[in-house]
Amino acid sequence: xxxxxxxxxxxxxxxxxxxxxxxxxxxxxxxxxxxxxxxxxxxxxxxxxxxxxxxxxxxxxxxxxxxxxxxxxxxxxxxxxxxxxxxxxxxxxxxxxxxxxxxxxxxxxxxxxxxxxxxxxxxxxxxxxxxxxxxxxxxxxxxxxxxxxxxxxxxxxxxxxxxxxxxxxxxxxxxxxxxxxxxxxxxxxxxxxxxxxxxxxxxxxxxxxxxxxxxxxxxxxxxxxxxxxxxxxxxxxxxxxxxxxxxxxxxxxxxxxxxxxxxxxxxxxxxxxxxxxxxxxxxxxxxxxxxxxxxxxxxxxxxxxxxxxxxxxxxxxxxxxxxxxxxxxxxxxxxxxxxxxxxxxxxxxxxxxxxxxxxxxxxxxxxxxxxxxxxxxxxxxxxxxxxxxxxxxxxxxxxxxxxxxx
Length: 406
Fold this sequence. Notes:
Elements: E1 6-11, H1 15-28, E2 32-36, E3 49-53, H2 60-73, E4 78-83, H3 86-93, E5 103-104, H4 110-117, H5 119-129, E6 136-139, E7 155-159, H6 162-167, E8 177-179, H7 182-194, E9 201-205, E10 214-221, E11 227-238, E12 248-254, H8 257-269, E13 274-283, E14 288-295, H9 303-307, H10 312-320, E15 329-330, E16 336-338, H11 342-348, H12 354-362, E17 366-368, H13 378-398
Helix pairs in contact: 3-4
């Protein structure tokens, strides 16, 4: 392991974790420690991660105990703790004063975080600071079927608060419900509350346009609340399987200074610190970019930022370990990020982007999230091949060819 004065410690087991660990490994040659609930791909048996299976990982006492364990293993190092899911960042934000002095928790205070991860409260802040968002209705279980919406189908329904939503443990719940009729919307709401969820649901107008109207914006705000780096991704394709719907599959980096400056102003006004990640959709009806939500962490697709030349590990270390005052920068490099095989990416993305995709691939500016040549694990390579096959099958089952393909 590289001789660094810090040790990254991640919580989770998905491609978010792997992508962050890869960034640390690329920048510093360091092997990341990660705690996850299951021995699952892509982190389990990876050569760049010391992956520790902990079935009780989402329990707050266990979470803090795992942090303490690593802090004692490396008493001479700073432990940089990053959560890769809303539940973990919520526990991290509320763990100040409960962890050893050599532990760094790069998050806002728990009260502000609880506000932002609740979509109902987030939209109130958007209205306050001039950030556009879709037309929204807050649904309470007590309304039953006795309510009306000022727009027609399709309807979007999603939980206002995702931590308790997923804590129900019901595997049939969807991340987002896209309902084609009023009857389907009512059935979806009934299903959610029957599963044990108790908070509000967010009902929204559907913004027309396929996946290529989506954007993802990742920002890093230093410990003083100053935005230092922003990277905008143009989403070309998302997952369409029931449990993975909305997860990014293909991204082209781009830059929109007006949008990024607006979000920068929002983040600095609320004194945000750490990584933030916005899901946004372009509304062709009025020419506005509309925010769906903020993730108070690096997103699942965070390697698109590193691939564009802004290694996210370096942002953390420069700010929190080296004490640098990093200059503000918007990513301008064009690059391609994907989590699926090339053949699948070209089959399900609009043809008008194919020329640039091929150009970036030829130029070496193409990055698969977990296909990392620096990972020495043979088992990881075998699991990666299995993942490629799974994505090929899943996208052919759930995804349709884009509109411009006829």
